[in-house]
Design a protein that fits this description.
Helix content: 40-55%
Number of domains: 4
CATH class of the largest domain: Alpha Beta
Strand order of the largest sheet: 2-1-3-4-5
CATH superfamily of the largest domain: P-loop containing nucleotide triphosphate hydrolases
Distance between the termini: 64 Å
Radius of gyration: 31 Å
Amino acid sequence: MEQEKARILVVDDEKTFATLLQRILQQAGHEVQAVYCGKDAIRCCEDFSPNVVITDLKLPDMSGIEVMHQIRSKRPEMDFILITAFATVETAVQAMKEGAIDYLIKPLKDPDEIKLSVARILERQSLLAANTLWQKQLADGIPGPDILFAGMEHIQYEIRQVAKTDATVLLLGESGTGKSLIAKYIHKLSDRKGPFVDINCAAMPETLIESELFGHEKGAFTGAVKTKQGKFELASQGTIFLDEIGEMPIALQSKLLRVLQERAFERVGGISTITTSARVIAATNQDLLALMKEKRFREDLYYRLSVFPITIPPLRQRPGAIKKLTPYLVQVICAKIGKKNMQLSDEQLHKLTLYSWPGNVRELHNVLERAVILSSDELVLPELQDQPMIRQQQMLNTMPQEGTSLPLTTLDAMEKAAIQNALKATGGHRRKTSEILGISLRTLQYKLKQYNLE
């Protein structure tokens, strides 16, 4: 493994010894400065900003411990190695109690002593930094860009370019590809002062979605016992994420269009105009152009939303990403359920890349979570052919045998047959049927009416 390079400050009034340490550490590839008293050390820390300070315990103007205290009052994360020629157990114990990471005796028995001590500290710093980053990612729910954009680095470039602007972004892609995480990442890069506020347009009843988006006044309808701010109001100076935008009722789309055009709206039952500076990001797994032809999505709204469209490729088109995503997801899952992190073998990772993942990253996560829960010490992956998504795929592949009287010559006929088979498989349970088909309950209800299957 390549040696990590660092900036190191050496503090010793014995110039010969200070120069020796400087040379040893420079040969190891580090950037090193040497000073000969405590005051110079404190001053140098402000300009040089070292990763590690190596100081003699006895200096002409103050002790090494005092140097450590003064520097740490401004840089509490700074790591110190204390060195002295007057070694006793008491001084060593005191140095470690005061916060030194290591304690060495001079003259050094071997040049490797100081190099190994520095290497241990740098490894510790690296682990702490990684843990801090990991905790932050867990806190905000966004993985690092190397994980989030695994196998689609070109999209990362596009997002970096658009994030700092106010342009409306439309995220397109299949369910489970991570559109909501990418929306959060855009908001994070934008440095907008307001919050990230999301709403799933498919999860809200038509009677409530307008109130959720724009808020309502007290008494505007039965149950409106007090005035409520809507998502657009809450997201002012921030970002509003409209997930499953293709499911928005057609009657509400004109009101959304006005917000995009004028940045203004009224609460339900209100007369005062409210303005918003919220940045809009929308997402859908549907073909909006097809919905436009069916008069289920407004053409003018589509063009307002698709200022900057980004298509997220499905996982089957980037199988190499699985080798990055899987260890990360296992680590997240283990942390969530309180198990020690489990490792996957190269053979297991290869096995995962051979599967088509119709449910994309969400399906991968679900498969891994089930495996972690059921595994004890080693991670045991299930047979992927037994997963619900692959059963759905197999069911659709056998559709012609279910009703041979139905000529599967059109997409509509295939869609109708798929819905009929899914209804039969769930005993007519509509919510389960929508989940199997990967569509919202509202879309299923529309399709049932369209194909006279109600």
